[in-house]
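Students often ask why inverse folding is considered easier than folding. One informal answer: many sequences map to the same fold, so there is more than one right answer. In these notes we will look at a single instance of the problem. The structure comes first.
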């Protein structure tokens, strides 16, 4: 929709005749876009007798997406708000900001759809995992065509995800609870971008973690995959790679389209070559491997002809915590950020963050956080918004709680670009500080974490620094208060 806070605010101000200061006071009271809209519009709109028919909404949203520029979008919104009941406006605003907060989890929607169509919940969930699109699943269920939604080439499947584990002992407890029979597979945790590759009938497609096609950005890699003599769907990490070594993540970033503006440069292929390190195989020569154990998927994976551009990530088999620690250190010494531990008996579970894949990032912990406030910088950084305050999520209430502040580690050009972005996405100005729409996700590194009353979360980070932007993650995926508690090994210093 490309309709952020600034546009929403503009339309609400126009329809309600509210002054900026009152708007801020209302927002502060609710901290929720929908409730702010509902409260501001009470008594200010002239809705017709019948409510806005749901069937008209798709065309209206399509138009909003089509319109260019904030002015046109705000007018489109205004015209609609002016004839909505405040409670309708509330949900419209919530849908636009993508933050419903109605306590409805995806699992419940799956259950409701299954009950409605008389389908087994398991079948419906599976279809949702495969497509990652509950809307498409509902549409298929309407036509009785759920079975059609199996894994298919050139339709990307949601990625299987990993849960964090603070140390090697934790991994052993999860993956090999009974003594003696342990076999835990570890792989290095590569610091690139997640990539799913589909190769069939001479065609190749690469998809990013958000299931966006990125083949056009990596034609050199696509050509290398084309040469593989078998058809397959693989999962792995795309790295900038040259002369047998991974290049820093920043190099890879040059080849990626960034979130705002600029697309990737197609001519950097020679200068910044990439390699795909495959660690899983989802489909091989017409056969789905999703339900096969990792052991079998790996055997097939290792049968692929690897080369400089398409590599198979090696596995180290570990029997106990000290072997895991050794593998971790070896991975760190090779410049990787940590270790992934996997259960060789586990199926591939698209879209699920379970405990069959665990990630160990100890000693160099990072947190995924969202920027909630920005501040004007000093000295060289005068005139740009360079100090970011960021937050984690309280998993029980869903609220964001600040945990730290860091100077942006971005390039000058990026800082300038984000300055503009944050100016447009400011919710409230408080002197030098601006409360901003929580939409920019960062990965921050730090040396340690301890309970502290300095921030809302009840924790503080020692030496936080921005490691990179995580525009491949959504706000629902940032780290939680519970995870901070695990890392800190102590409860927060502030009661929630
Ligand atoms: P995080 O981004 O910190 O949630 O860690 C999970 C990510 O690690 C995955 O989405 C992958 O992009 C990346 N990763 C790197 N190496 C591996 C590996 N060997 N197995 C699975 N994921 C990996």
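Output (designed amino acids):
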């Amino acid at each position: 929709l490309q309709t952020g806070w600034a546009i929403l605010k503009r339309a609400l101000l126009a329809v309600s005749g509210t002054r900026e200061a009152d708007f801020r006071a209302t927002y502060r009271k609710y901290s929720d876009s929908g409730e702010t809209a509902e409260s501001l519009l009470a008594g200010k709109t002239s809705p017709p007798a019948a409510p806005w028919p749901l069937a008209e909404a798709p065309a209206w949203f399509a138009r909003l997406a089509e319109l260019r520029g904030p002015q046109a979008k705000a007018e489109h919104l205004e015209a609609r708000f002016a004839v909505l009941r405040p409670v309708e406006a509330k949900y419209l605003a919530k849908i636009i900001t993508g933050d419903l907060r109605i306590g409805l989890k995806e699992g419940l929607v799956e259950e409701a759809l299954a009950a409605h169509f008389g389908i087994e919940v398991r079948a419906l969930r599976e279809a949702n995992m495969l497509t990652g699109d509950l809307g498409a699943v509902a549409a298929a269920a309407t036509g009785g065509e759920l079975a059609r939604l199996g894994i298919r080439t050139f339709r990307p499947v949601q990625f299987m995800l990993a849960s964090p584990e603070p140390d090697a002992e934790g991994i052993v407890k999860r993956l090999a609870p009974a003594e003696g029979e342990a076999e835990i597979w570890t792989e290095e945790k590569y610091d690139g971008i997640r990539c799913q590759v589909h190769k069939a009938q001479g065609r190749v497609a690469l998809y990013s973690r958000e299931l966006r096609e990125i083949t056009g950005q990596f034609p050199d890699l696509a050509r290398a995959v084309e040469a593989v003599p078998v058809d397959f769907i693989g999962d792995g990490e795309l790295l900038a790679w040259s002369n047998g070594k991974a290049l820093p993540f920043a190099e890879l970033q040059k080849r990626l389209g960034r979130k705002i503006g600029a697309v990737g440069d197609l001519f950097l292929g020679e200068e910044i070559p990439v390699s795909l390190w495959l660690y899983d195989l989802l489909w091989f020569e017409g056969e789905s491997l999703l339900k096969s154990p990792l052991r079998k998927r790996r055997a097939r994976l290792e049968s692929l002809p690897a080369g400089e551009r398409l590599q198979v990530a090696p596995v180290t088999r570990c029997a106990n915590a000290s072997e895991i620690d050794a593998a971790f250190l070896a991975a760190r010494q090779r410049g990787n950020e940590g270790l992934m531990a996997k259960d060789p008996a586990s199926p591939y579970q698209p879209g699920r963050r379970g405990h069959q894949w665990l990630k160990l990032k100890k000693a160099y912990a990072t947190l995924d956080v969202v920027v909630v406030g920005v501040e004007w910088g000093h000295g060289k950084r005068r005139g740009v918004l360079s100090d970011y305050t960021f937050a984690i999520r309280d998993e029980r209430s869903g609220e964001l709680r600040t945990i730290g502040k860091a100077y942006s580690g971005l390039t000058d050009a990026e800082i300038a670009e984000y300055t503009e972005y944050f100016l447009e996405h400011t919710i409230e100005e408080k002197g030098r500080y601006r409360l901003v729409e929580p939409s920019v996700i960062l990965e921050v590194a730090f040396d340690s974490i301890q309970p502290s009353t300095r921030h809302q979360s009840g924790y503080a980070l020692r030496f936080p620094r921005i490691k990179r932007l995580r525009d491949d993650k959504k706000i629902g995926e940032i780290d939680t208060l519970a995870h901070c508690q695990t890392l800190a090994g102590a409860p927060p210093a502030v009661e929630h």
